[in-house]
Amino acid sequence: MPRLALEMDFSFSAAHRLPCYSGRCFNLHGHNYKLTVRVEGEPDPKTGMFLDYGDLEKAAKAAVLDRCDHANLNDFVDNPTAENLVVWMWPRLREKLPGLTEVRLWETRECCVVYRGDP
Questions:
Q1: Which residues are catalytic?
Q2: DSSP state, 31?
């Protein structure tokens, strides 16, 4: 069977401020984030699936969404830039999703950070 990729998008709202930045984002503000989680694997020959979408959703919810949604991100990430947030999310998602290959965090509709784990 071929190796395939499965992606799922999630959304959450959160507040943060960037204490190490001298600009508007130094002040407390919020975003409606979009999180894209990508996993890869080989489908089971019988079911034709390697991961159920419902299982991916449960894993993402337990790993990061329950903690981040409607939260102040500064409460658990010192300098919660989008870059630092995906690095914080990676090991939590990886623990629940062994086939994890990529995490994208959209801070706005136009801007995202892509993380593929440590080289």
A1: 25, 70, 107
A2: E
